[in-house]
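To assess whether ligand presence alters the predicted conformation, the chain was also submitted together with flavin-adenine dinucleotide. Input:
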Amino acid sequence: MYFTDAHEELRQHIRRFLEKEVQPHLEEWEEKTFPDSIFERFGELGFLGLRYPPEYGGQGGDYFSAVVLSEELARVGSGGLGMAVAVQTEMATPPVFKFGTEEQKRRWLAPAIRGEQIASIAITEPDAGSDVAGITTVARRFGDEFIVNGRKTFITNGARCRWALVVTKGERERGHSGYNLLVIEKGTPGFEVSRTLQKLGMHSSDTAELVFEDCHVPAANLIGEEGEGFKQLMWELQGERMITASGAVAGANHVFEYTMEYARNRMAFGQPISNFQVIKHKLVDMGTKIASARAFVYETAKRWDEGEYPVREISQAKLLATQVACEVADDAIQILGGHGYMREFPVERAWRDARLARIGAGTDEIMKEIIAKSYGL
Ligand SMILES: Cc1cc2nc3c(=O)[nH]c(=O)nc-3n(C[C@H](O)[C@H](O)[C@H](O)COP(=O)(O)OP(=O)(O)OC[C@H]3O[C@@H](n4cnc5c(N)ncnc54)[C@H](O)[C@@H]3O)c2cc1C
């Protein structure tokens, strides 16, 4: 219903590349994070611009091309790599494409599609995460430049990025107007990576804290109209949540298939553990939850692809899919028993990686607040 032959061809192409050039290095990358050069390789193969127009080096595909990439990345079982690529393709660059000028697209979007420039998006601050409007990074305008002061944290690709799309507040912000999205390039005096952060999962990606101190940013780096940043960010977050939901379902399915195979082969009391009704039923529950989450995610992705703005359903898809992914990973560990807890079995990493998706791109609680508001509650 959603995928054409071209999508399936793309899937095989991505899968072959990941099996050959990514899978063999994953264990090492979980220890040290992946090398920047992997972005160039993704770029060479066209995977960073699947749904961007050819004039910027993209492949001109639809949203389901991006879904295919997220599903295949989830299937290799390294959440950190999938997240880093999604930040590049589905979070940092979409606002440049949608709201940026032609010159800005040539300067930042096209090189990001080629994998020559790694991008990040910097919203969260030490004192403001869910409460985006509560950020305190200020960009004061003086003629043809902004002077930016503030601090961002938990920024994926933050250490390795060439530029960050930074959410800032104007001096005279009024309600939700007065926010600005600025592209701030590494090397701009006053922009530093103050530290990288250690975390529970997603080990192959880097997570950094960024500091801006009297950082002079040309007004030409303002994306879209001055003062419209909050609205632009709310649009960006819909895409971020949609792709998070898609990856979560695919990741859960990968864990489910692995676990089913394991249960068929693991013997206890003289028979495969999949013979025990309690294990069988747990597997059935896992598969059923995945199937229903997948159907809802695809239906919502189709609406997003067709230009609708279904905020309620995107929030529901993100909430449902990421909860299912965590439940499935947890059940998988239980079915594998002690093996599930060991690093050499993949479900341990899946359990750690999946947990982030209920926090990043808006927490479960924030999704429920948005959904409640959509019902008029
Ligand atoms: C590994 C990792 C990578 C990340 N990558 C990025 C990135 O690239 N760029 C970026 O900008 N951010 C990134 N984030 C940040 C992420 O988006 C935030 O952590 C998330 O939005 C939650 O914000 P917070 O951590 O400040 O939690 P808080 O906002 O402090 O929330 C704490 C708790 O309070 C609850 N809560 C808050 N408000 C409400 C409310 N109104 N009603 C009910 N409950 C509420 C929350 O749901 C949560 O349970 C990343 C985070 C992690 C862990």
